[in-house]
Amino acid sequence: MTPGTIHGVGLGPGATDLMSVRADRLVRQARHIAYFRKAGRAGQARKIVEGMLRADVCEHAMEYPVTTEIPVSDPRYNQQLAAFYARCVDHLRALTRNGEDVVVLCEGDPFFYGSFMHLYTRLQAQAEVQIVPGITGMSGAWTASGAPITWGDDVLTVLMGTMPEDDLTRRIRDTDALVVMKIGRHLDKLRRAVAAAGRTDAAWLVEYAAMPEQRVTRLCDAAAVAPYFSILLIHGQGRRP
Amino acid sequence: MTPGTIHGVGLGPGATDLMSVRADRLVRQARHIAYFRKAGRAGQARKIVEGMLRADVCEHAMEYPVTTEIPVSDPRYNQQLAAFYARCVDHLRALTRNGEDVVVLCEGDPFFYGSFMHLYTRLQAQAEVQIVPGITGMSGAWTASGAPITWGDDVLTVLMGTMPEDDLTRRIRDTDALVVMKIGRHLDKLRRAVAAAGRTDAAWLVEYAAMPEQRVTRLCDAAAVAPYFSILLIHGQGRRP
Fold first, then answer.
1. Residue A114: closest CA among chain B residues belongs to which residue?
2. What is the pLDDT of residues B67-82, one digit of tens each?
3. Which residues of A touch B173 (CB under 8 A)?
4. CATH tag for A5-132 (out of 3.40.1010.10, 3.30.110.30, 3.40.920.10, 3.10.20.90)
5. For residue B221, what are the contacts with CB-CB under 8 A and spacing of at least 6?
6. Taking CB atoms and an 8 Å limit, are A160 and B153 in contact across chains?
7. In terms of pLDDT, which residue wins out, B226 or B50?
8. Residues of chain B with C-beta less than 8 angstroms from the C-beta of A158
């Protein structure tokens, strides 16, 4: 029997019609879909494809054993996640050995942060894996902001809100355009870093880009905690004839 | 008469089925399309939509008066481009005043570098403009490379090959993951900067990502001059359970 293929499919920032034509076709035809989610939640990737699936689709929800309950620095965090990814890979491999193709739903772009890459590296030697790139969450955010992120020869820096404050400040001072993701509980620290870099007036917070709850605010007007789907932007001011 | 809308539509990195479902629909329905190109060339954006257009579509090619004939630092460069963009805006505005919608074809993502933003800022106060984000050329490149660009809390820096060599070196030394665009004739300088930063072994050159001519090579094996559609990548090595 010919083994099946695993497709890591980027779904884009949130609106269903912002996935690629290739992704749309794969999702609609899929006999098996798999996706990550927090236990007890619907999962954002699964929500994006609501209404698109075959009536006889088999769904494989992969539920994280831990998200924010254990700090990332604790060795148990990595141990539990590594064991979890190994179980997911075994499950997907069993399907492909039976000749089934599987579409793994990925928010944004599969190779830009995100969880699918942890399966990808484990699967690479064992199965046929195809990647469909997607529109990133940050593209969704700067489109929502109504202004281009980079012009001419601007330098763009992408940072995670989890970084130490001094590193954030130094890097925010040293870039033309800025994107910060993974903000959540780090918003106050980030706000201080942006202020220390002298760029508060230029900073925007985009929540739920390309989703029905989309909201764009100046950083100085934002609440104390940002939702999970939040992206901070500073737009470049490069050459513009 | 209700004025028409101008749609700045991201087409993605090159493959027709990597444009979004929203972009695909707008392109297929369009009565008027507009796109930039170098005089005497077909234009990459126009090539991507070949075979998708209505039989009665009106095409508006906007031909750059100058590309690399005058250095960017020469004041005549900016003057000629500014006059050109003003003419384009007048042309598009005349169409919308007659109630026509226009789809402006944009490679990659309209708000990530690119030329459409020069029309966008001029049109904003005068016409209804809608933006459809797209998969960036850099997403196409890291997908082609077969490896994720960023993991965990990696810092990503996006640079233009046009930068001075010392700035390139300093920034390449100071990032986890790297994307360099606008390489072309700057490839030798870039190669020296990557070497000075001690990262030659990690650097990949992707030419024509997501196009039929796609090619992925180690930077040390690349030719002396890179084609226009070339992107240099260094993949991040961040946290991976």
1. B151
2. 777 787 888 888 999 9
3. none
4. 3.40.1010.10
5. none
6. yes
7. B50
8. 150, 155-158
